[in-house]
Amino acid sequence: MAPKTEILFLGATGYLGAGIFTRLLNHPKASEFSITTLVRSTEKGEALKKFNPTLKYAVGSLYDKADYPVIEDLGKKADVVFSVADADYLPWTTALLKGLKARFDATGVAPILIHAVSLLRAYLTRRMLNVFSKSGAGILLFTSDPAGNHSDLDLEDVKAVPPTALHRNVDLAAIAADEAGYVKTYLICPPLIAGLASGPLYDAGLAHRNSIQAPALMRPALDRKQAGVVGDGKGVWAAVHVDDVADTFVLLFDKIISGAPGVGHGWEGYYYLENGELSWNDIASAIGQTLVELDVAKSPEVTSFSKDEISKYFKSEFASSVVSSTCRCKGERARALGWSPKYSVADILAGLKTEVEFLWKKAQAEGKVDITPNYGVDAMLQRFASLSA
């Protein structure tokens, strides 16, 4: 009997990760997999086991160095790692790569690392210096080509992203491991992910359903009872539906384990995902129309947030700049492997209504609109700054 493929999954209860995790549990070859996930509590691990009694779990945190031996040990046992939990914190990544190297040294076979990276790392049009840094060194968001000519097949462009870009430190560590030959790395880079996630883990309350970027405009709109944008709202982002992203992870996984030709890794393993573009005005307009339909607002008009509102809703200049920025790309590498996204921009816009309705029902149940940002930008910047402190 052939040994099972040992899969380590990081981020099983996240907005994106839960959908990918569910697809693995329901995979046609699931009986050939042995899946382990990292959870923050025994309770969470036992809750996940209800969906697959053979699931194994370890308790620990990616952000507690006391748990890094646990992460390293998990890496030593993994044939494949799905990393969908964090894109920019190097210490835990280093522990994982150390474990994966030990796996390679023991087996002679390079483990697979499929890692999620936000396109936020490089292709924003608005420059910001000294956004956050304990050491005084600026953290820079790099200027995008206004025409959006960033293709994942253009290796020169992919390599041109400076090492100080957001998430780039983790990217470079993963690629260095690939170049050293002890890991094969695949970096999936979605831009603006949209869509209300669905599935058993979400139904059980183990994962949150809402996306990140669009609700950053939805929550303020519900609170002020009028759709709004930062600045003129003309910034444009490439967009993709959460289900299309989850499908990409599984497609890539299938191609890798089947030995299909043409599956790039390392520098040729960047996979940008997009199926069209949306402006922040497009998003806000869809929100405004839904507010009227919900009888929350009298007019669908979109207005610019005031300075005080920006401070209230976004907490930092960096966070507000993200929802006024431009981030464009061309996702060609995944399409070359057969990826065919199901959801168009029109579908994504229509789906924003469902997200607004979900947040409004939640606000009614709780008696208030939760305006706490859920995208963790400030925490991300703090982690980045700690690396240079």
Automatic annotation (TrEMBL):
GO MF annotation terms: aldehyde dehydrogenase (NAD+) activity
Location of the NmrA-like domain: 4-86
Organism from which the protein derives: Rhodofomes roseus
GO cellular component terms listed in the entry, alphabetical order: cytoplasm
SUPFAM superfamilies assigned to the protein according to its UniProt record, in alphabetical order: NAD(P)-binding Rossmann-fold domains
PANTHER family assigned: NAD(P)-BINDING DOMAIN-CONTAINING PROTEIN-RELATED (PTHR48079:SF6), PROTEIN YEEZ (PTHR48079)
InterPro entries according to UniProt: NAD(P)-bd_dom_sf (IPR036291), NAD(P)-dependent_oxidoreduct (IPR051783), NmrA-like (IPR008030)
Official protein name in the record: NmrA-like domain-containing protein
Lineage: Eukaryota, Fungi, Dikarya, Basidiomycota, Agaricomycotina
Pfam families per the UniProt record, alphabetical: NmrA
